[in-house]
Amino acid sequence: LTHFVPLPELNLEGNLLHRLPQELGSLLHLRTINLARNKFRHFPEPLAAAPALESINLEGNEIAEVPTEALATMSSLRSLNLRANPVCPAVRLLVQPLVPFELLLSPEGNVPTA
Fold first, then answer.
1. Exposed e or buried b for every residue in 24-40, given b needs 16+ CB within 10 A?
2. Integer distance in angstroms from the first to the last C-alpha of the chain?
3. Which positions, given as ranges, span the membrane (predicted)?
4. Going from the N-terminus, what domains does the chain have, and what CATH number goes with each?
């Protein structure tokens, strides 16, 4: 990944990924990442280190918990898509009022189970 430093977009949709390398944070120009339809059970922490990241698509994974503290440090983030993830109701109530970006979630009860 470190050889792709000027990379503005990264599409890794549908690759059965469950974690990301820490080096992802060294992609200083990365603005958009598509991680939809993989196997993430947790929010990929290396994303919080990518300083220019504006849009994250994690639709269709297995994420139930959302790290509010990590998201709060992402000053460039404008959109986080967590549709079709089993995000628990408590997280929905806590996160939505605290995040300064568009948070896309599936309506409660409409999340497919894996």
1. bbbbeebbbbbbbbbeb
2. 30
3. none
4. 9-96 (3.80.10.10)
In this predicted model, what pLDDT tens digit does every residue of 8-23 receive, in sequence order?
Answer: 999 999 999 999 999 9
CA dist., res. 89 & res. 111, Å (int): 12
Within 8 A by CB and 6+ apart from 85, the residues are 58, 59, 60, 61, 62, 63, 64, 105, 106, 111
b/e per residue 58-97 (b: at least 16 CB within 10 A): bbbbbbeebbeeebeebeebeebbbbbbbbeeebeeebee
Q: Which amino acid is at 72?
A: A
pLDDT in tens, 47-96: 999 999 999 999 999 999 888 888 888 999 999 999 999 988 777 676 66
**Tokens 């929905």, residue located:** 92
Name the phi and psi angles at 27, rounded to 5: -80, 85
